[in-house]
Prior knowledge:
Blueprint: E1 2-3, E2 6-8, E3 11-13, E4 20-25, E5 30-36, H1 40-59, H2 62-78, H3 80-91, H4 95-112, H5 115-118, E6 122-128, E7 131-139, E8 142-146, H6 154-165, E9 169-173, H7 180-191, E10 199-201, H8 206-214, E11 218-224, H9 227-239, E12 243-247, E13 252-256, H10 262-274, E14 284-289, H11 292-307, H12 328-343, E15 347-350, E16 369-372, H13 379-382, E17 389-392, H14 398-407, E18 410-411, E19 413-417, H15 421-430, E20 435-438, E21 454-455, E22 458-459, H16 467-472, E23 474-482
Parallel strand pairs: 1-5, 8-9, 8-11, 9-10, 11-12, 13-14, 13-19, 14-17, 16-17, 19-20
Antiparallel strand pairs: 2-3, 4-5, 6-7, 7-23, 12-22, 15-16, 18-21
Helix pairs in contact: 1-8, 2-4, 2-7, 3-4, 4-6, 10-11
Amino acid sequence: MQELTHFIGGKHVKGTSGRFADVFNPATGEVQAKLPLASVAETDAAVANAAAAQPAWAATNPQRRARVLMEFVRLLNRDMDKLAEALSREHGKTVPDARGDVQRGLEVVEFCIGAPHLLKGEYTDSAGPGIDMYSMRQALGVVAGITPFNFPAMIPMWKFAPAIACGNAFILKPSERDPSVPLMLAELMLEAGLPEGILNVVNGDKEAVDAILDNGTVQAVGFVGSTPIAQYIYARGCANGKRVQCFGGAKNHMIVMPDADMDQAADALIGAGYGAAGERCMAISVAVPVGDQTADALIEKLVPRIEKLKIAPYTGGEDVDYGPLVTAEAKSRVLGLIESGIEQGAELVIDNRDFSLQGYEDGFFVGPHLFDRVTREMDIYKQEIFGPVLSTVRAENYEDALAHAMDHEYGNGTAIFTRDGDTARDFANRINIGMVGINVPIPVPLAYHTFGGWKKSGFGDLNQHGPDAFRFYTRTKTVTSRWPSGLKEGGEFHFKQMD
């Protein structure tokens, strides 16, 4: 069986803690690799390695740092299929979806190639008599990212690309469920010309996370995952004086107005609700049709589309719609929430609780489910399911639909489908959610805008990627200078009389 490693100081390093985690093939349920779990000492050693390498990297001019990222983009494109296959093998998502995972990370790297412009400071001459003033953006030093299983390529790149472009060294603690792609990314960064020690990958569990949070050398931490862990990391990191950005759970609503194109809305919900088996923080898990007539029409459109979904392992071809969940525990949790929905009175329109894929009976597959007449009190409405389950909540009118999204504790993403510009504009202005789609079901911003949710979906003042990333990974130093005047006339060769 393959034994994976850490990546420290530009080299693969075997674990020494004696603790390991199993890495599964979600399609078969088989263990395919062992992953070392770092101790506090191993984590601290990686941080020390990064700290030793960082000053020389920060002293490298931004244009040269950007050239490393430029070469990294070329290598990502070269190895796209290799990365996608490794990602699918450990996560379970389809190969086209895995390519998209890599691509959306690549786009952030492309944005970071503009670091020389993004890191420019400000300058004021003659701020006072003979006084000039200027500000500089400088690297923090050693920073860290703790990233989730559902995007093992994209989110690590969202974190380390801007951090490294700013001149920092980076400690990446990826998910222990699908760690191979982060290790491959570190190899490619080294091949692209990144100095050893600037990007270190430390695999581990809570022990490694706490070691990062408690290490005084680490200046900033970024996290993506569940809300309870986001709150924990934010509180502990801030208590230790670090700059922290944490992104948590989601419950994304899609409002469907009576004037919406029902075919367009149904197609959008299929992709947004069931793509990647629902394991996306931007998945639409709640459809909110306005009025019973709209709801009936939407359900009528959804049912045949859901029944045609193809569920299979990533080896099943390019036309597979989604694959297994990432672990047996994830499957058990999703099925448990489905049972709670039935017990609490929701109408299960499409029931695939007995779904089993021939030849892959031990895999972590869950068939698509559709609920109707879901209410606010139900667990399937309140909790992030993170599985192929779409809930339909019937709203009496537009204000009722708006209130559902606004009153929920999560505020990551939302969407509205309508032909009316006034309704769309009102929705975009009033909604208390960080990312909004208008006839767009998954409104993930492009790399040059920022990504971040509100309420219990986001903790911290600055978002991911876009200009906010360069603000997060630098601190501003302002210099006020005055130079003595009168020296330009040269030396004097006689005694000056006393004034």
